[in-house]
Amino acid sequence: MVFTSSSQKKIIDIATDSKYEKYLYRCLGGPPSKHYKKRIEYLKQAILKGFHKKLLIFNGEVVGTIEYAPSEVSYYSISGDKIIVMNCIWVLRKAKGHNFGKFLVQDMIQSEKYASGFATIALENHWSPWFRKWQMEKLGYNPLEFVNVMHKTKGRAFSIHLMWMPNKPNTKPPTWNQQKLLEGITFCIAHPLYHPQTYKPNQILERH
To answer: How far apart are CA 69 and CA 83, in angstroms?
Structure first.
C-alpha cells in the first residue's frame, strides 16, 4: 500500500454510523458474528454505556480498527475509576509501516479526554499474531502484572499481561480479576482468548 502526500485517511465511529454497520459484528477479516448471540447481547448494552468501534479508512479502503469501552462494559475483567479499556486494535498487514496503530490510539485518547487512563491486555508466547506485548508497548502501554495460563483445548502455555497508560497525573492504576479472565472471551469469535459456545466447561484457560 503506497502512502503519498495526497493520501487520505479518516476515522469513523461505526457505533453511531450505520454505513459500516457490518463491522460491528466482525473483524476486518474472518467470519462475521452478526448472528452470534453473545456478540449481539454485548453490543446492545455496551453501546448505551460508551462503547466505541472505529474504522480507519485509508484512500477509501478500511485498513484498521480500534474498539474500546468504559471498564464496566469492556471484554475484560479490568476495573478502575474512569478507565477506558481497549478491547482490540488491528491494522491490516498491507497497511503496516505508517504508524496507523498509534494514529488509532491517539484518536481514542483525544476522544476520551475525561478518562483517568487506558488499559488493555497483552499476550506473550501466544500463537496468535494479535495482542502481542511488544505491540502494546509500542502503542504506549506499560505492563503492570501478568498471569501464566494454559489453554485447555490447545494444551499450550502463554502469559496474559495487564497493560496501562495513565492519562492524568497520580492516577490509580487498574486492577483485574484473573479468575474471571480464565473464562476467556465470548463476545468476539476472532479473539485469541475466544471461548466457543461448543466448549461447555466454564473456563477455557487454567493457571500454569
So the answer is: 9
Residue 116 has pLDDT above 70, yes or no: yes
For residue 18, name the pLDDT band (cuts at 50, 70, 90). Answer: confident
Cell of 156: 499450550
Q: Is the dihedral of CA 31, 127, 41, 120 positive or negative?
A: negative
Q: Which residue has the cell 498509534?
A: 102
Dihedral sign (CA 21, 22, 23, 28): negative
3-class DSSP state for residue 139?
Answer: coil
The distance of Cα 71 from the centroid of its chain, to the nearest Å, equals 12
Q: For residues 54 and 23, is the Cβ–Cβ distance under 8 A?
A: no
Q: What is the CATH number of domain 9-207?
A: 3.40.630.30
Q: Which residues pair with 68 in a beta bridge?
A: 52, 86
Is the separation of the CB atoms in 195 and 183 below 8 Å?
Answer: yes
pLDDT of residue 23: 86
Sequence spans of domains, the chain: 9-207
Q: Using one digit for the tens of pLDDT, what is the confidence trace for 31-48?
A: 555 557 888 888 989 999
Task: From 88, 59, 83, select the one nearest 72 (Cα to Cα).
Answer: 83
